[in-house]
Design goal:
The chain has 17 helices and 11 strands. With about 425 residues, it is α+β, with helices and mostly antiparallel strands. The chain binds zinc ion (ZN). Zinc ion binds next to loops.
């Protein structure tokens, strides 16, 4: 079977013919050149207005990179016609295998973008003998295409999340759809300021915001204020994962303080290197970590007390009714206020200050899935980890949308990956 027969069966372009195929084994990298020519008598389309026009002249042949085959680089080679268009004047024709002035075929672009969902971008570049920036451009093109066709219907629940990014304690704000039937990244913005969250609501639109039933967020003030104002009809829920992260931070503080104190008294700082024992759920500890924890629990330390308070608070989320949960919360807070452990007292104060929002959890229970924001946050972190070279906001934005946005993709007659 001829190569052109295969191409005709997987990717046929109306008005064009696959012509001669040349295998250049002497090139720096082995290359397959597939020549394309216009079908006899067919007219080209103006790239300005998309209307057929008269042939003006022909430019020098140009290479468009195609999906590689057996580690051989593949290019379509085509001499673009110039069209004498009645509306636009003389323009270069539009070709169906590439967008605008791009030197990459659409097939290759979506091929690279598909692999970039599974591997980190530098691995994709190495595997298919191309550069990081080519992979980036492919993904960027895919994201642009998807965003232009973003479907924002049927969203009833959103989660507002923040993620560390960049130097000097920078943040990004990520807004997810967290409905039972669909979870995805909807929007991303720089920083976590009032302006950031206001920009989200402006983009999202008043009408859509009015239709939201649930909004999940952490206790960050600018978020709380904007959500109360812009999505006032929704039940505002404080996300469990973010609430519990305040406990982890508090325990960390207590532990660090205690290590310091023990050292200054010349005692063996048994807590050193035990950080993970206190932050992990008991069932997730390794055997050694479990033994260390047992050892530590035998000592009556403030870290231990804090740890037990946190473990006890986990019961809060198990309640079914708002009232009984409220009773538990109030009791827990007053007990903690007597603990004499300042970081934990700060947690209790914070919980008291957000009592109503915390209790909204029980109105939304069963309707907003528990781990949605946490799950999306973990996926976002994995994307950041894979992010060799995503130093600019533009690149990280493209990476997040690509990995988490569940964006639409065009229908192809043949899928290369
Ligand atoms: Zn035109």
């Amino acid at each position: 079977m001829q190569l052109t027969s295969i191409l005709n069966s997987i990717e046929k372009y109306k008005g064009f013919v696959y012509d001669e195929v040349i295998f250049d084994r002497k090139a720096f990298k082995k290359t397959l050149l597939i020549h394309v020519r216009p079908r006899v008598g067919s007219k080209g389309y103006c790239s300005g207005c998309g209307v057929k026009g008269r042939h003006y002249d022909t430019l020098a042949p140009r290479r468009f990179q195609y999906v590689p085959l057996w580690a051989i680089l593949v290019f379509l080679v085509y001499a673009m016609r110039r069209i004498d268009c009645r509306t636009c004047g003389v323009t270069v024709e539009m070709v169906p295998w590439a967008d605008g002035k791009k030197r990459m075929t659409r097939s290759f672009q979506w091929f690279l973008a598909g692999w970039a969902k599974r591997l980190c971008w530098s691995d994709v570049a190495a595997a298919f003998q191309t550069s990081w920036s080519t992979v980036y451009r492919a993904v960027e093109g895919a994201v642009e295409w998807g965003l232009a066709r973003h479907d924002l219907a049927d969203i009833t629940a959103i989660g507002v999340d923040e993620i560390h990014w960049g130097k000097a304690g920078g943040f990004l704000t990520l807004v997810y759809q967290i409905d039972g039937h669909r979870k995805r990244l909807l929007w991303i913005g720089q920083h976590r300021s009032k302006a950031t969250i206001e920009a989200f609501f402006k983009w999202y639109g008043k009408e859509r915001a009015a239709n939201l039933q649930f909004v999940c967020s952490d206790m960050w003030k600018p978020y709380l204020r904007a959500i109360a104002k812009r999505a006032s009809a929704a039940i505002h829920v404080l996300d469990r994962f973010h609430v519990m992260s305040h406990f982890s931070k508090a325990i960390d503080k207590v532990r660090a303080g205690e290590v310091k104190k023990m050292k200054s008294r010349g005692l063996n700082p048994v807590l050193k290197g035990s950080r993970w024992c206190w932050l992990k759920r008991p069932e997730n500890l390794t055997e050694t970590q479990g033994d260390t924890l047992k050892e530590l629990l035998r000592l009556n330390l403030r870290t231990v007390k804090s740890y037990l308070l946190k473990e006890d608070f986990n019961n809060f989320w198990e309640y079914t009714y708002r009232k009984s949960a409220a009773r538990f919360l109030d009791k827990w807070c007053s007990r903690t206020m007597y603990s004499k452990i300042d970081p934990m007292k700060d947690v209790a104060r914070m919980l008291r200050a957000h009592r109503d929002l915390l209790l909204n959890w029980f109105d939304a229970k069963g309707q907003v899935s528990v781990g949605s924001v946490e799950g999306m946050n973990n996926k976002a972190k994995t994307t950041t980890k894979k992010s060799y070279g995503f130093r600019t906001y533009k690149a990280i934005r493209v990476a997040y949308y690509h990995a988490l946005g569940d964006l639409p993709e065009p229908e192809f007659t043949h899928r290369f990956c």
